[in-house]
Automatic annotation (TrEMBL):
Species whose genome carries this gene: Pedobacter ginsenosidimutans
One of the record's GO cellular component terms: plasma membrane
Protein family: Belongs to the SecG family.
Record's protein name: Protein-export membrane protein SecG
Membrane association type: Multi-pass membrane protein
GO molecular function, one term: protein-transporting ATPase activity
Positions of transmembrane segments: 54-71
Keyword Cell wall biogenesis/degradation in annotation: no
């Protein structure tokens, strides 16, 4: 189910990109011809493309929220992959907010190194 929603999300993103590129803004953009001939932009096709862009944007937001909700609550393959990572994260020690040592055990007392006391 999540894979299907992700595929729909990718299709909606590509379609939104195409809708944005096809639009004829006031500055010319990808439109052929001079910018002075259509000083205020194309009105009729602009309305349809603008509404289509808003609809696709809404679809992308809804699909994104649906994928997030389903992936978080499902016990499918996404949860299995995350459980091994989560177990490793749970086992790692967390640093102290006061800047203390990560190790709870004290280091072994080391013997002082022998110094050469003879003068040369």
């Amino acid at each position: 189910m999540v894979t299907f929603l992700i595929i729909l999300l990718i299709i909606a993103c590509v379609a939104l990109g195409l809708f944005v590129l096809v639009q004829n803004p006031k500055g010319g953009g990808l439109a052929t011809g001079g910018g002075t001939s259509n000083m205020f932009g194309v009105q009729r096709t602009g309305d349809v493309l603008e509404k289509g862009s808003w609809v696709l944007l809404t679809v992308i937001v809804v699909l994104t929220l649906a994928v997030t909700t389903i992936a978080k609550t499902s016990g499918g393959t996404a949860a299995v992959g995350n459980s091994a990572i989560q177990e490793r994260l749970d086992k790692t020690p967390s640093p102290s907010p006061l800047g203390g040592n990560l190790n709870s055990t004290k280091p072994a007392a080391s013997t002082p190194a022998k110094t050469d006391s003879t003068k040369k």
